[in-house]
Design goal:
- This protein is an alpha/beta fold.
- The protein has 4 helices and 10 strands; from the N terminus they run ββαβαββαβαββββ.
- It has a 4-stranded mixed sheet, with no helix packed on it. A 4-stranded parallel sheet has the order 5-4-3-6.
- The longest helix has 11 residues, at 22-32.
- One of its GO terms (biological process) is dihydrofolate metabolic process.
Length: 158
């Protein structure tokens, strides 16, 4: 699972990201390239261009007739999990309800936290740091947006 969130758990507004950190976008690309990414329909449609290069896309949609160019469409998280069976790592990239469904099943979390509150309509309030062990952390400052943020890689406690 990979997610960028504000200090108050907000991850999106009006089907868009809250902030555009070039370093975080590069990190997302580095981590997910060569792997499968799993997302909801709205997250796919929020991407500026899709499919993203060098990644297999699995889109979860409640519409059994939904088709998206360059993507595999499934109707449940169970179907998505079956499609990635045997893969070393696949990444859930959103949105809010997809994160909620996959959260208890995820063993790794690649988290970007912006140390500032943002207003939004989509949240990652399910995150509980007591569920995780910090594997690495990097604290940074974004001069363009004038805020502090952190990259935190976590593994689920056994």
């Amino acid at each position: 699972m990979i997610v960028a969130m504000a200090q108050n758990g907000t991850i999106g507004k009006d089907n868009d990201l809250l902030f555009h950190l070039s370093g975080d976008l590069k990190r997302f690309k580095t981590i997910t390239t060569g792997h499968t990414i799993i997302m909801g329909r709205k997250t796919l449609l929020s991407l500026p261009k899709w499919p993203l290069p060098n990644r297999r896309h699995i889109v979860i949609s409640s519409d059994p007739n939904a088709e998206f160019e360059g993507c595999e469409t499934v109707n449940s998280i169970e179907e998505a999990i079956a499609k990635v069976d045997g893969e070393e790592e696949a990444f859930v990239i959103g949105g809010g309800s997809i994160y909620e469904q996959f959260y208890p099943l995820s063993s790794k979390l690649y988290l970007t936290t912006v140390h500032q509150n943002f207003e939004g309509d989509t949240y990652f309030n399910i995150f509980n740091e007591d569920d995780w062990i910090v594997e690495s952390r990097e604290d940074l400052f974004d001069e363009k947006n004038n805020f502090n943020y952190s990259y935190i890689n976590l593994s689920r406690k056994k």
